[in-house]
Amino acid sequence: MLRAAGAGLAMLALSACAGGQYRPVADTPVRIGKPYAVRGTTYVPAAAPAYDAVGYASWYGSESGNRTANGEKFRPGWITAAHTTLPLPTYVEVTALAIAGTPPLAVVPEDFGNGYNPDSHLVLAGKQYFSRQEARDYGNSATAPISADSAFMHRNLPRTDGRARVYMMTKISIIDWPRQMRMLAEGRIPFAILNGSDDPFLNHGYIARLNYGSIWRGAPQDIMGGRHAPFFNKPDAFDLAFYAFLRDAESGSDAAFRPSRMAATA
């Protein structure tokens, strides 16, 4: 969950053009843009001091070095984000955090080999060009075995820009992993791990053995049959666990968040 906390520097629109002449990082002036439309949807930027939302986060590493909408230089190692209507800049407080499909790592690259399963098709995640067989293998591992529901992803996989995969894998070391692990070990915010029990990319035993200061239900939760995208492959089971986590986080239930133990199954 995300909550706005007044004007500040956290939210950045990443659609601005690339180039130099960056503006210094600053809390002022606060900018509220004009209404704009994207694919038939109109967005109206406005101040929202009571902003409270649940949403998904992604990584915009390919924007590294580009200018943001308020003229600053985008730094993918910083805790920044994009938003459609909040003023720039805005501070946002993360009040609960759930991750799926990506293990929290302590040190890169030493722990990278521990957190992931090198026997899977993980190597394809950093490859620019796929053969037809590699595209099928990667689609089966990264999303779901081909079916009526997943066919559109398999069909469009060859159209994806492989340069983004290469960039993501080569720049992953710039993220401040030790700081993230300290946050999780200290239990600063309500936190959950929701992974597919059969995620081929992950070393589940390693993830279960990590030190979490306050994790939901005391351990990473495995969604049976969820693979690498449990929210897609098992949406009912994932939503049941996810919304139970949000309710516990919202209520401030101390009993629901405790130091880690062996992994549990959802």
Protein architecture, described:
The chain has 266 residues and is of the alpha/beta class. It has three domains: 1-94, no CATH class; 97-117 and 175-265, Rossmann fold; 123-172, no CATH class. 25% of the residues lie in helices and 14% in strands. The protein has eight helices and eleven strands. It has helices at 112-115, 132-142, 151-156, 162-170, 177-186, 204-209, 230-233, 235-251; strands spanning 2-7, 36-38, 41-43, 52-53, 90-94, 97-99, 191-196, 215-216, 221-223, 257-258, 264-265. The strands form four sheets. It has a four-stranded parallel sheet with strand order 6-7-9-11, covered by helices on one side. It has a three-stranded antiparallel sheet with strand order 4-1-5, with no helix packed on it. A hairpin with a 2-residue loop joins strand 2 (36-38) and strand 3 (41-43). The longest helix has 17 residues, at 235-251. The protein is globular.
